[in-house]
């Protein structure tokens, strides 16, 4: 399997795992939905889980990989406010939890770059 294919499938696996987690353990995601968003946090949790599952499917399929990987990069930028919300909310928690919340912030950069790399490496649709 070529390296670019493996990278695409790993990204799809990460997205699928995160998407499933939104439905298996939604409370942890509900808690980081920025309070400025309208509606129920659970609705946002479910919507982001569905989005991650759809992106996973798109990245996994060569025919849709390029556009899905670009959308994934945008998605990773879009969830940054939730990670910021988590860091703010967890500022008074024990050090390991605070470190985990703060560690999520710079992690968005390599995730965005990874998704862009997958998009660039994907074949153009016929």
TrEMBL record:
InterPro entries: DoxX
Subcellular location: Membrane
Chief localisation class: membrane
Keyword Ion transport in record: no
Membrane topology value: Multi-pass membrane protein
Swiss-Prot/TrEMBL keywords: Membrane, Transmembrane, Transmembrane helix
The protein's name in its UniProt record: DoxX family protein
Organism for this UniProt entry: Streptomyces similanensis
